[in-house]
Amino acid sequence: xxxxxxxxxxxxxxxxxxxxxxxxxxxxxxxxxxxxxxxxxxxxxxxxxxxxxxxxxxxxxxxxxxxxxxxxxxxxxxxxxxxxxxxxxxxxxxxxxxxxxxxxxxxxxxxxxxxxxxxxxxxxxxxxxxxxxxxxxxxxxxxxxxxxxxxxxxxxxxxxxxxxxxxxxxxxxxxxxxxxxxxxxxxxxxxxxxxxxxxxxxxxxxxxxxxxxxxxxxxxxxxxxxxxxxxxxxxxxxxxxxxxxxxxxxxxxxxxxxxxxxxxxxxxxxxxxxxxxxxxxxxxx
Length: 285
Ligand code: C2E
Ligand code: MG
Ligand code: MG
Ligand code: MG
Prior knowledge:
By secondary structure, the chain is α/β, with parallel strands linked by helices.
């Protein structure tokens, strides 16, 4: 978006400043205030048991309600938040908000429900992360195993020796650890074996096309078998059609997530979706 801004935004453009740079500056200024103005919202996408299709948890996905541009997806502002360091206060807010929602679901009787939160590299390497996680759990008196932290493969493969220490510190708190976007980075299998992670999430780029592309199908099946070989639970993200299910069941994938079941939804809409889903689901589904 390149729109006029309110009077509290400074409007100067350096001579020679490109439109893209000007837009970025605006977005950055807006991002600084978004937290204070309450413009962020967490959407939640259900994660289901592959066999029984019961809801096991939900992934929290951040949305920004920009006053002029409307709903902005995370790919458009998370990179900027990382570059500017704003991801730290935003990430802390996400942790608190997701834990509050998990506590609400548990009070509604969804006792086994977990909530997954994406943690970027910029947060993962900060000393304050364990403390922020602990505080978010304590504020809700939430059992640590209700929270899963999703960390991408590329983040884990950067930090070498420190990675293991940091993961153990988080694991010792009792939270779940999940390796996100698996298959898009360069994991060394020996690392995977050493890291105290619980879950592999197969990247949606392999899952999406596995129905019609034999190559992707083989890759997905191999990743599932490998994950199980390492004692990990495996989640397939990007499940977009009913045809995925028999394939993923045959490969014994533990959990499924994708548009076929539900898009990410505001918290209350997801609560309603879960109720309807549980009523309408036939036992042999
Ligand atoms: P991710 O963690 O891999 O999340 C999955 C993304 O795939 C989400 O996009 C989700 O809406 C989308 N998705 C789910 N099912 C399907 C499907 O069946 N088909 C397709 N094509 N896509 C599907 P979203 O919400 O736009 O988020 C994009 C990325 O932004 C996330 O990828 C994550 O890396 C990042 N992100 C989101 N929320 C946060 C956050 O609170 N903190 C941080 N640090 N990163 C976040
Ligand atoms: Mg994720
Ligand atoms: Mg992912
Ligand atoms: Mg991603």
